Amino acid sequence: MDETTKAIVERVAIRFQRPTRIPSGQMSSVFFDCFQLAPSDHARLAADAVGHLEHDEFDIAVGIAYSGILFSAAVAGGRKVAILQKDGNFFGPDLKGQRVVIVDDVVVSGRHLMDAAARVRAEGGRVFGYACIVDRSGGRFSGETGGELQAPLWSAFQAEME
């Protein structure tokens, strides 16, 4: 990761004086408000996270509503995009037989990714991997096996939970 990526992520970091409950339910002194990112930021961060992948390695990016939607378009890089809505239904192209990258903005426990993977598989899609802007999981899901996720997690930035 280079200084530009660090500066982009630092720009959306909200720091609290004492640990505060963040949307994941965890207590932290830092929250990453990725809704503040511009489209050019998303493109830069997507290149950092999944730029090493060949264009034909996956077919579709599935953004988890609401926080993963904007980043999913950048991760897709011209491929198809679908949205996993809050009600558990998909909006967008059929997933049957598709190689899918599931996208969220920040990963902490991996629960949203695992839930999304179950929904993708139920629709006949194959989870190729996961992508996020900030990985706060402490490396539990990185690497070739993906840990509990059973597929790799690629991120632009890693940050520990405090």
Q: Please, could you describe this protein's structure?
A:
With 162 residues, the protein is α/β, with parallel strands linked by helices. The chain has a single domain (38-158), classed as Rossmann fold. Helix content is 25%, strand content 32%. Strands 5-4-3-6-7-8 form a six-stranded mixed β-sheet, sandwiched between helices. A two-stranded antiparallel sheet has the order 1-2. Helix 2 crosses helix 3 (69-76). The longest helix is centred in the first third of the chain and has 12 residues, at 39-50. The radius of gyration is 15 Å and the shape is globular. The model has no long low-confidence stretch (mean pLDDT 93).
Report the principal-axis shape.
Answer: globular
**The biggest beta sheet, please?**
6 strands, mixed
Number of domains: 1
The level-1 CATH class? Alpha Beta
> How many strand segments?
8
Compact description:
The protein is built from 4 helices and 8 strands, in the order αββαβαβββαββ. It is of the alpha/beta class.
Layout of secondary structure:
Blueprint: H1 3-11, E1 13-21, E2 27-32, H2 39-50, E3 60-64, H3 69-76, E4 80-84, E5 90-91, E6 99-107, H4 111-122, E7 126-135, E8 153-158
Parallel strand pairs: 3-4, 3-6, 6-7, 7-8
Antiparallel strand pairs: 1-2, 4-5
Helix pairs in contact: 2-3
